[in-house]
Recover the amino acids of this structure.
């Protein structure tokens, strides 16, 4: 598990255009890694839309948002189009990043053995260290969005 104060492990995943995006692409910027269980799943819709609603404020304080799920680039692309999400949504198809960041949930929706991302927020500071980490007790719980904004603020 990557803890607060530790160097955030780099990763490379595909975005909705099937292009590779790495955490290291954001070197020198604060990054909010928003892990979510699945596109079009109610609470995830609310979470990504809430982050989108706070995006201008987050960008003002220099934070970039990256959503990460185990969904395909096509599902994430349709999700982004439907909700007009302007930040990157990345596909962790091999589930390596959710393992790396200890953001895994088993049994989503009662599907025994199905592994998805849990709802989790990891804030990486501009130097690449984990500044904040929150993992939901269950995927139905949303993060405190104002707390995220205040942590990213000056």
């Amino acid at each position: 598990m990557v803890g607060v104060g530790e160097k955030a492990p780099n990763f490379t995943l595909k975005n909705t255009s099937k292009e590779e995006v790495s955490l290291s692409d954001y070197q020198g910027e604060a990054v909010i890694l928003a892990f979510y269980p699945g596109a079009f799943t109610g609470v995830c819709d609310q979470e990504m839309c809430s982050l989108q609603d706070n995006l201008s404020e987050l960008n003002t304080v220099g934070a970039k948002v990256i959503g990460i799920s185990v969904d395909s680039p096509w599902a994430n692309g349709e999700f982004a189009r439907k909700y007009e999400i302007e930040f990157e949504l990345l596909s962790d198809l091999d589930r390596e990043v959710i393992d790396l960041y200890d953001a895994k949930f088993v049994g989503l929706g009662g599907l025994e053995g199905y592994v998805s991302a849990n709802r989790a927020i990891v804030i990486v500071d501009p130097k690449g260290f984990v500044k904040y980490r929150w993992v939901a007790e269950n995927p139905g719980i949303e993060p405190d969005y104002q707390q995220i904004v205040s942590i990213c603020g000056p």
